Amino acid sequence: MQTHSSLTCPVCGHAELLEMPTASCQFFHECSACHAVLRPLPGDCCVFCSFGSVKCPPVQDRESCCHPAAEKT
C-alpha cells in the first residue's frame, strides 16, 4: 500500500508530496502555494482520490473509504 501521494492543485498547478491518512478521508486541503481550499470532486471520497497521484489507502484496499473497517458487513 502506498501512503504518500503527490497532490496537484487544480487552481494553480502546484504539486506537493503528502502523507495520506490510512484510516480516514481527508476532505479538505489548503494549497501551500495559492492557499485555495481543495475539496473532493463529486463522487470522490477525499482530496487524494480527486487530485492525488495515488488514491487513498482505504480505496487502495477496496474498502469503503469513509467507514471504519469494523463497520463492513
Report on the architecture of this protein:
By secondary structure, the protein is an alpha+beta fold. The chain has one domain (about 5-65). About 10% of the residues lie in helices and about 20% in strands. It has two helices and four strands. It has helices spanning about 45-50, 55-60, and strands at about 5-10, 15-20, 30, 35-40. The strands form two sheets. A two-stranded antiparallel sheet has the order 1-2. Strands 3-4 form a two-stranded antiparallel sheet.
Separation of the first and last Cα atoms: 22 Å
Instruction: Point out poorly predicted stretches.
Output: 68-73
What is the share of helical residues? 10-25%
Number of domains: 1
The largest sheet, given as strand count, sense and whether it forms a barrel, is: 2 strands, antiparallel
Mean pLDDT: 87
The radius of gyration computed from the alpha-carbon positions, rounded to a whole number of angstroms, is 12 Å
Largest sheet: spatial strand order: 1-2
